[in-house]
Every structure is written in structure tokens, then in C-alpha cells.
Amino acid sequence: MSFQVDEQGYYGNFGGAFIPEMLYPNVEELRSRYLDIIADPVFQAEYDALLKDFVGRPTPLFKAERLSAKYNTKIYLKREDLCHTGAHKVNNTVGQILVAKRLGKNKIVAETGAGQHGVATATVCALMGMECIVYMGAIDIERQAPNVARMRMLGAQVVAAKSGSQTLKDATNEAMRHWINHPVDTHYIIGSVVGPHPYPDMVARFQSIISAEIRTQLQEKEGRDYPDYVIACVGGGSNAAGAFYHFLDEPRTALIAAEAAGKGVNSGHSAATTFLGKSGVLHGSKSLLMQTEDGQVIEPYSISAGLDYPGIGPMHAHLFESGRGKFYGITDEEALVAAVECSQLEGIIPALETAHALAVFEKLQAKPNEIVVVNLSGRGDKDLATYQNRLKLND
Amino acid sequence: MNRISALFSKAKEPILNVYTTAGYPHFEDTMTVLTALQEGGVDIIEIGMPYSDPVADGETIQQSNQASLDQGMTVAHLFTQLKDLRQTITVPVLLMGYINPVLQYGVEAFCAKCAAIGIDGLILPDLPMAEYEREYKAIFEAHGLFNIFLITPQTTDERIRHIDSVSNGFIYMVSSASTTGAKTGISSDQETYFERIASMNLQNPRLIGFGISDHSSFMKASKNASGAIIGSAFVKLIGQATDLRAEIVDFVQSIKGKK
Fold first, then answer.
1. pLDDT in the model for residue B255
2. How high does pLDDT run on average in chain B?
3. How confident is the model over A38-74, as pLDDT tens digits?
């Protein structure tokens, strides 16, 4: 079975390009050119140089000794939190801004949830001298204030999405509407492996550097180039796509995804799409989607703005449906406990999103000689207000 | 013959298609609005099936969608409201909406229900042509439903030719690169685009939508097409109307220049 995208833009039953005609010329131009653009040696050289000197890659693969001791297995942390801007998101924005340049675009629009993708987009726009507009849910603007300030400091215009649940879903709607209204000079940098084909594949390719490095680094440290488990959190699923990418066809590696179960999978306040969703179309692709019987999209809930999304990338829907990926629902509380544990055992404060992946150790029961790699997708600075509040750090 | 084809073959004056959101301004207003539109002299009615995430629509239509959903509108409720449609409404009726609610209802069941009620065609902006041809065309055709495609100023001639070859009824010409209700009036650039498409001698007639809000823009658009479509301007009107029936009749007549 293939876990890569097919000619029609599908991963099994999921994917495609369900877009209004207004977006067709842009998406079609991207579809017909992205593979050639990415394969061009000049592009590759420019992309690699920026990842090395601007982003700070390769990121370390760190053996977490105290976590390993606690869970009686071998745990490695892939330190995407050490990327410039503090999360993996920048791997994709560096790639896409170079694509945008080659498409002759001089303006960028993006959506953001936690603000990490927005910051990563504003950063590369500043670097390349491009105009940048970021749509962000009004609620997220409130709960992720430091990232809003960072985007503005970088010269981006941050626009509040005030429709619907006022979170990531609605920010994405507004970014798509902006693109419809500015089709000629603007490129839309989607931040996750969602959206119409070719976005899920293009974003996965730009994030695949994560698993490419894991292979090389494991070979050096463990004498084999694959782990027994790769764990990553999934909202739309870009860090998971990158961490899984080079292990998709490696049967010895189990792919583990942590979804946000909010206050509990069946509490009515959750974003655990594979548990609660069924096949549907949102933001240009067919995937698993949290929706009513009538096909209206359900507003999700998670303590983590980056996982607060009612859908999931089509690649992950296929991994779920085919059984290739194993999905866990992690509650807010479990994530908070895991965040404290990682902070106090390893000296690394993780992002709330990442904390969901760290909470899987408890459930995994890996054997002592097995190798577990967790993608530490982002650092927790942006979540300090939530941590302070929920963990009563100032009392 | 499908009512849409019959209309275009006999129409002598510009055709006016008006979009209205189902269950708006109030849940039970759907048939009242349809009846008043017909009384005013509308040629085609397009009923919007509300959706939580209408990406091709601007603020006015988004808000009407949300207001309708908040009052409990669903596809199934809408079909109940429309069950006696053809006892009063004789003009062609289209359903416009996004693909997801149709998928959840079941494409086959949805089309069968449309046919039973007397719906003439569908406008589903996020159903791409390739998907339509692969999976939906046969079902739509089996139920006698026309599928209306959109073209925009950015659509290439080659693609327009292809859309023309798989269209029936008419082609929906989006007047500018925008969401609904974003702009008003018709610029000279847009007129150049209208003329370019008119000179392509397509086999299907065209209606122009987006940015049409009054008699003058309606007539301007109709110079290079069979007529035009009004959406946001109408939704705005009914959202504020105090006498729904009278104001709708008056609106339609003023657009058509009958008043």
C-alpha cells in the first residue's frame, strides 16, 4: 500500500482539490509546477542553505535519559523547538516562500492557530522583503498574545477572524477568501498538511527534513536508521507528517499520533478528529472531519490553539483508515502533566501541542531495548500564560 | 425540457436570477421569499443551502448562512419546506451550496429528492469539474439536474471551452476575482472581460454574477450576457425588510426597470 499522494492528489480515499473556480488558476499553477521547482538543484541549494544558516538545522536528536529511566525504554527528543522561531513550522515557510518567489508572487497570506505558523511566515516574509498578511482567530489572538506581538514586530499585518468559532478553522476560511480576492500577486502559505492538493504533499515534503535527519542521527547514535516508534502530535498534522515521512514504508517503525481530546474524547469539548470525525470536505480536501449529521463543521475545543482544528490532513486520515498509524486522544490534563514532566526531568519546556505527544509515553509501554523518538515540535514560551494559569505557577 | 433551457430559449429580455439564503431572515420565510420573488417577476431563483464554512462568500451571505443555521436549518428541513414548491413556483429553481452537506445527505438521495421536488439544477462552487465528471455527472443527469459551473476573469480560454462542453443550462460568469458581495458596480476592465467571453461564441448562454446590485449594473452586465445574478444586495435587503413581500416585489421590479 502506498502512503504517498497519487496522481489525482489522493491518499487512499482522502485528499483532492475541492476548491471554487476562483482559486483554480492559482492551485493549478502550483500543482503543475511545485515538483519541478522543488527538484531544481538551484532551489535545493538555496533551501538547504537557509535551513542550515537561518533556521539552524540540523536540529539535535537528544537522548532523554531521565524520561528514558522513568518509562524504562530509550527515548529520544527531536529538537524542533530549537529551530529559529521556536517550532518546526519554519521548515515549511522557508520552502514555500522560495516557491512563491519562483511563481512571481510578491505578497503572502497565511492562517495561524497558535501563532507559530504566523510567526514563521512573518519571519520569512521579512527575510525576503514580501508583504505579509496573517489571519488569526479572534480567540487565538487573545490566548497567544506574545506571538501576535512577534508577527507585528516582524512587519506583518495580523487580521482577526471573527466568524464562526474564531479559531484556526475560521482563520483558514478568511485566508482562503483573501486569496480569492487577490489571486494574481499573492501566494497562500498554508501551515499544515491540509488544503487542496498539492498543499498536503508540498508541506509534507518541506517538513520531511525532520525524519531525514532522524534517520542519519539514529544511525550515528544507535547503529540503525529507524526507531521502533515515532510519536508526534496532530492538529492538521504537519510536524507528524515530517516526522513520519521517511518511515512511512518502514514496517519496523510504528507511527504514533497524539490528538487533542480536550476535556475528554466524548465530553463535547474535544478536537480528536479520528475518534469523532467522518469523511467530509473542508478547506479544499476530503478528509476526516468533525461535523454534524447535516454536514456542518463542528467547532472543536483544545487547550492548545495549534491542535484546535476540526479536521486532519488527508495523509493522516489515510494512515488512520489503513491502520498504518495509531492514534491516541490526549486530554488537556494529560498534556499539562506531560509538559511539567518534560520540563522537570529534561529541562525543556515544551509547547502545549508537543505536550500531547509527550503524554503518549504513559500509554505506549515500550520495551527497555526499544527506541522511541518524539518530535518535540515546539517550545513552550508562547504558552507560559496558560501554564501559569493552569499550573498556578505564581501562587 | 428542463425549465432552465425553456427559459433561455424563449427569453427576449435580460434574465434576472436572484439568490436567497434558505431560512432567512427567519426559518419559516423560505416559501414567502420565493413567492414574492416570482410575483415581482424574477426569472430564476437560486436557493442557498446554508453552510458553516462558505469560503466563496463574503460577509453578507456568510452572516445569513449562520443566522439560518442558528435557527436550525438543515438540508432535510429545507426539503420539507420545499415539498410543495411546484404548486406555486413556476420559474426555474436552483439549489446553491457547498459540497459537504450534500455528501453527508448522500449524493444519490440528494439528487433524487431535488428531482422529486422540482429543482432544476445545482451550483456547488467547491465541487471541481474533474470530480464532477468522474463521480457525479451520471447521477446528476439521471435525475435531470443541470450542474452550473463558474468561470472567472482568470479562467483560461481552454478551460472555458471545456467547461462549456460539460455545462448545461448556463455558465455562471463571476464578474471579478472576489468573494460574493465584495465589490459593487462594473468597471471598464470587467466590460472588456465580458466582451472577450461573449466573442468566444460558447454553446451555453451566460449569466453574470458578483457585483450586480441595481438596475444599472444589471443592464450593463446583460449587454454581454443573457442576464445577471444578484445575491448579496438581495440578502441585505431581506435582512432589513419590515414588509418582506412588498419590498421583495419592489426590489425585483426596480432591478428589471419595471418601476
1. 97
2. 96
3. 999 999 999 999 999 999 999 999 999 999 999 999 9
Contact between B126 and A284 using a beta-carbon 8 Å cutoff: yes
Answer whether B45's CB lies under 8 Å from B7's CB: no
| Banded model confidence at residue A142, pLDDT cuts 50, 70, 90 | confident
pLDDT in tens, B34-90: 999 999 999 999 999 999 999 999 999 999 999 999 999 999 999 999 999 999 999
> Alpha-carbon distance A126 to A131, whole Å?
8
Q: How many CB atoms are located within 10 Å of the residue A80 CB?
A: 31
A61-63 vs A74-79, strand pairing mode? antiparallel
- How far off is chain B from A281, nearest CA to CA, in Å? 5
For chain A, helix (H) and strand (E) counts, in that order, are: 17, 14
Quote the pLDDT of residue A395: 80
pLDDT at A29 over 80: yes
Q: Which residue among B62, B103, B150 places its CB closest to the CB of A20? A: B150
Task: For chain A, list the domains and their CATH numbers.
Answer: 17-50+89-202 (3.40.50.1100), 57-86+208-391 (3.40.50.1100)
Active site residues of A: 89, 111, 377
The 10 Å CB-count burial string (b at 16+, else e) for A340-356 is bbbbeebebbbbbbbbb
Which residue is closest to B103 within chain A, CA to CA? A280
The predicted structure's pLDDT at residue A211: 98
Contact state of B55 with A169 under an 8 Å Cβ cutoff: no
Neighbour-count burial of A251, counting CB atoms closer than 10 A to its CB (0-12 exposed, 13-18 middle, 19+ buried): exposed
Residue A145 has pLDDT above 90, yes or no: no
Asked if B53 is an interface residue toward chain A (Cβ–Cβ < 8 A), one would say: yes
Torsion sign over Cα A247, A248, A250, A255: positive
Closest CA to A228 of A368, A60, A64: A368
Angle between helices A199-207 and A209-222 (to 10 degrees): 30
Successive 10-residue mean pLDDT values, chain B, 259 residues: 92 96 98 98 98 94 96 98 98 98 98 98 95 95 97 95 95 92 84 94 96 94 96 97 98 93
**Chain B positions in Cβ-Cβ contact with residue A176 (cut-off 8 Å):** 55
Asked if residue B53 lies in contact with residue A169, where contact means CB atoms within 8 angstroms, the answer is yes
pLDDT over 90 at A252, yes or no: yes
Q: For chain B, which domains are there? A: 15-149+213-255 (3.20.20.70)
Query: Which pLDDT score is estimated for A1?
Result: 82
β-sheet bridge partners, residue B229? B17
Q: How far apart are alpha carbons B155 and A29 in whole angstroms? A: 12
- Whether residue A103 contacts residue A30, with contact meaning beta carbons closer than 8 Å, is answered with yes
Tell me the average pLDDT of chain A.
Answer: 96
Contacts of B154 in chain A (CB under 8 A): 22, 24-25, 183-184
Determine the distance from the C-alpha atom of residue B22 to the mean position of all C-alpha atoms in its chain, rounded to a whole number. Answer: 12
> How many residues are listed for chain B in this entry?
259
**Residue A232 binned pLDDT confidence (cut-offs 50, 70, 90):** very high
